[in-house]
């Protein structure tokens, strides 16, 4: 019985650590999304610039 309590206690500790790690990931997630949106916006701007330059050169 004491051995089972130790196992359960160990599992609870591991779950607490996992929850802490998940909270850190969730807290950092908005920054990741902002970075991706910024890069996508820059990529779109570059695509537009390339298209405009192409049109200008081909005239």
Automatic annotation (TrEMBL):
Protein name: Uncharacterized protein
UniProt organism field: Cohnella phaseoli
């Amino acid at each position: 019985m004491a051995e089972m309590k130790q196992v359960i206690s160990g599992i609870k500790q591991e779950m607490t650590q996992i929850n802490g790690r998940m909270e850190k990931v969730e807290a950092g997630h908005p920054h990741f999304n902002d970075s991706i949106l910024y890069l996508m916006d820059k990529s779109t701007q570059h695509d537009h610039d390339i298209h405009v330059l192409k049109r200008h050169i081909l005239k």
